[in-house]
Write a structure and sequence with these properties.
Length: 52
């Protein structure tokens, strides 16, 4: 199982944990469905953590 963690930076306002989770789910779905799209293309910092 791969766990996605996202760091979302928005200097104009605070992004809530709920919003971060919703964004993370949406982005991970995009990345899983379209292997031609990289994190750099979307402009996010993505850390992949392998669960033991």
């Amino acid at each position: 199982m791969i766990e996605y963690s996202f760091h979302i930076h928005n200097p104009s306002r605070i992004i809530s944990d709920t919003e971060q989770t919703q964004i993370a789910i949406a982005l991970s779905n995009i990345l899983l469905e379209n292997h031609d799209v990289s994190c750099d293309d979307i402009g996010i910092e993505l850390n992949l953590v392998e669960e033991q």
